[in-house]
Amino acid sequence: MTVRLRIAPSPTGSLHVGNARSAVFNWLYARRHGGQFIVRVDDTDTARSEEHHVAEMIEGLRWLGLDWDEGIEVGGPHGTYRQSDRFDRYREAAEELRLDGHAYYCFCTPEELAERWVEAQKAGKPPGYDGLCRSVDPDDALARAAGGEPASLRLAIPRPGVTEFLDLIRDDMRFDNENIDDFVLIRSSGAPTYHLASTVDDVDYEITHVARGEDLLPSTPKHILVTEALGATPPTYAHLPLLFGPDGKKLSKRHGDTSLRAFIDAGYLPEAMFNYMSLLGWSYDPEVTIYGADDAIARFDLADVSKNPAIFDVDKLQWMNGEYIRAMPTEQFIARSRPSLELGLGRSLEPAEFDQYRELAPLIQERIKMWPETADLVRWLYVDEVEYDQQSWSKIMEKEPSAAVLADALARLESVEPWTAETIEAAMRAMLEELGLNARKGFQPLRVAVTGSSISPPLFESMEVLGKRAALERIGTASARLAAS
Known about the structure:
The protein has helices at about 15-30, 50-65, 85-100, 110-120, 140-145, 195-205, 220-230, 260-265, 270-280, 295-300, 315-325, 330-345, 350-365, 370-380, 390-395, 400-415, 420-435, 440-450, 460-465, 470-485; strands at about 5, 35-40, 70, 105, 150-155, 160-165, 170-175, 185, 210-215, 235-240, 245, 310. By secondary structure, the protein is mainly alpha-helical. Among the domains are: about 1-75 and about 240-325, Rossmann fold (3-Layer(aba) Sandwich), CATH 3.40.50; about 330-380; about 390-485, Arc Repressor Mutant, subunit A, CATH 1.10.10.350. Helix 1 (about 15-30) crosses helix 10, helix 16 (about 400-415) runs antiparallel to helix 20 (about 470-485) and helix 18 crosses helix 20 (about 470-485). It is elongated, with a radius of gyration of 32 Å.
């Protein structure tokens, strides 16, 4: 048997990181077992589905490094892999179920259903459809529907009975059919419901394993009952733990933008995002956190996924992103950081300016976790006049002995030749020794004068790259500003 798994997001919004995590787990399991990974679009809600969300979904999955064997854009033996193109197939399947006695017409209006639900609540009865139309003679029901009376089609849940299955993550699951109402398969408008469309697709596409979020667990007995009524064998299910924020609550907008698009735009590395997502409910090894896709494929098993909620911690993701950045070869770092650097600066760098960045790049690489930080660390290099960070100025420059340090440093640096990090450092350390100052009091005023901030790449390397003339001018400007204050 060929293992076949799928991801089936709805294009009514941006791809959520929870759905992206599900895609990663499905892809890993398929690749581990030499199986097939399918991407389909669950767009039965045609009124709310938007094509740009489909394009965004495809871009996001590919950004993560996922490929698929069948599905949207790739093609395959099942058409477009869009549910909106399969409505006739769903109606055909529903009619088969009706003819076989597994489904029946329901003529209850929404107003009647709402009224009966209120009465059921008052009587302490469980919510759900009360089965009123199940007793209508099938021939009479067919005649009424053929005559134009609005009707939905409901699955006739076999009662008494139980629906049982083995969940790869949650072990043995058992649902009493008494607690499953006769749910709608085809609405009175003729549109299929999620329960019917998703199940028919899984049957037609020969899906062997369905790995999806725990929030869909209550739907699983319904899908199994539809599958069995269609005469097919249900797939193996695995219900993944939900994603929670660090506060222990279900991941939502309160934790910020939780779309995959937001993390792409924020400058995360796809390798880091894939690595982090694969850890959300699964562990590669207790001692190993950083690993590649091939390593994960070699070890991944749905049976090893935790039942407990997984914590989506942006701080940990940023840490991991930084680890990936620091592990890059320097030339790769330079090439991959340039677009974000120029975006942050608001312009393209001239060749000579980029050569300056190239000199500082290894030092930048050691200090950042995210691409946008690159521009923040080198912005001072590409301006004519330094804009001082007010907090740095107040904390460092307005206190003793900053004014004396700048004046002394300016005099000493005038004679430094050649202008290298080594010669600059030697002159400045000699100054500290003569003035009896520690490095913080002696070097921080220079850092603020040269870069505008107390946070920057290493001071002496920065001064070398900036050049002697510009460095002395900046120190002189800061010294004059202090003298005038």
